[in-house]
Amino acid sequence: MSKSKHLPDKSDKIPSRQEPQIEAEKSEKQIAVGEVFSKIFGISAFSGPLPPPELLEHYNKIIPDGADRLLRLVELQSGHRRTSETKSLDASISITKRGQFLAFLLSLAGFSTAVLCAYLGQPVPSTVIGGGTLIGLASLFIKGYTHKRFEEKDEDVKEQSANVAP
């Protein structure tokens, strides 16, 4: 195989003085375009259910009664959230009451059985049933109490971390 060497021909030009000027004009245009973008670019943010009043006014310009529609939407969502939270709390209270009632019936049955066994002259089953019922109830109340305390501490930590400004 033969290697061909590149020989200069008429299409190969030696750079003239005009080319640097063209490059300079291009770079000036690119800088100008970059400046426009840097002046246009901006960030706006808000927190909460409602935007700032200036943005509400802008919504009204774009959509007829846009701000009023947005406020109604926020009010409906807020009402729905309150209703859902109320239902959730009512259900939680109902479950807790039912559990306490069933625990009362179970403990009453356990202690009644222990008393019956003691009355019939069976001290070992009476002690096991009565002691088991008492230990079970005590551990349930202690476990429930400590579990509730840890949940409250976790919620407090979450609220504190949410209130800390970055």
Helices and strands in order, then pairings?
Blueprint: H1 18-40, H2 53-62, H3 66-119, H4 123-163
Helix pairs in contact: 2-3, 3-4
Description:
This protein is mainly alpha-helical and about 170 residues long. The protein has a domain at about 50-160. The protein has helices at about 20-40, 55-60, 65-120, 125-165.
Quaternary form: single chain
Number of helices: 4
**CA-atom Rg in angstroms:** 39 Å
Kindly estimate the percentage of residues that lie in beta strands according to DSSP: under 5%
Tell the overall outline. Answer: rod-shaped
Mind describing the biggest β-sheet?
Answer: none
Class from helix and strand fractions: mainly alpha
Residue share in helix: over 70%
Mean pLDDT: 75
Stretches with pLDDT under 50, minimum 5 residues: none
How many beta-strand runs?
Answer: 0
- What is the H-and-E element order? HHHH
Distance between the termini: 69 Å
What characteristics describe this protein?
166 residues, mainly alpha, 4 helices, 77% helix, rod-shaped
How is this structure best summarized?
By secondary structure, the protein is mostly helical. It has four helices and no strands.
